[in-house]
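Quick one - first record:
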Amino acid sequence: MRARGAQVTDIVLLVVAADEGVMKQTLESVQCARYAQVPIVLAINQCDKTEADPEKLKKELPVYDVACEDYGGDIKAVHVSALMGDNLMALAEETITLAEVLELKADPTGPVERTVIESHKGRGPVTTATIQRGTLRKGSIMVAGKSWMKVCLMFDENGKTINEACPSMPVGIIGWRDLFSAGDEILEVESEPRAREVVA
């Protein structure tokens, strides 16, 4: 799941507890981000606890290929407390600033491209995906792996039916002929005959 998440995101928000330090899941997340070549913003959480030691944590991290700016690296680190709500705006601002520096922009026009987050049988084959480019609309013809579809129904993360989905938007999609694997790329094609040709 971590690897899949790193493949479909533009920035990894790495959350590490200031009182626990580097854990196995921290290392897995760093490896996934590095493999996917996705930049990291570090959120050092639980800074409200008396045993929290964010500086000790930042000193440990370069060994694991995570060097914060104040230790000679290029990773922004923000001390937060999710429980108390402390410094969450600063974390959001650092993430937005990095997105602006990287000039992260998706093209809402042109053919749809997205990556499958999960796929399961529910109301027929259902796929959850994040739009990476283009605008997905009801009736669009899509291909993935050896399957194709005409979008019958789409819904947002709250289960509300929607008629279109824009870049960076997670969306549930119903209409696939068959299930396929998480991580597969989904592409829009111009017609049903073209879809049949692509998956043949």
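second record:
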Amino acid sequence: MSARPSPTARALIALEVLRTRPGVTATELAVRLGVTERAARRYVEILREADIPVESTRGPHGGYRLGRGTRLPPVLFTEAEALGLVMAAFDRGDDLVDAALGKVVRALPEGIARQAAALRE
């Protein structure tokens, strides 16, 4: 049996859903969060209270989406995902990719950063 996500975790999940599924409905968001529609709308309000611009549109093609110019918090990767990105970037050999890769590697936990450095050599 898995633990239920905390309210904070649900708010972050809601943010990720809004980022990846513009136009998501309250019903769809509720299903994704495992809560009622009313609770899903409350999580949208929590994001708005945190100054995250969430726009809503009513009607048959309505839903929630993040407002323009939204600055999102850092993306959280699993160790395997981060290592996969590093490996994929190594294949590119592009200056911009190398610069971005350096930032990613510096943000990795020390053990994963060592693995990434070993792969690069």
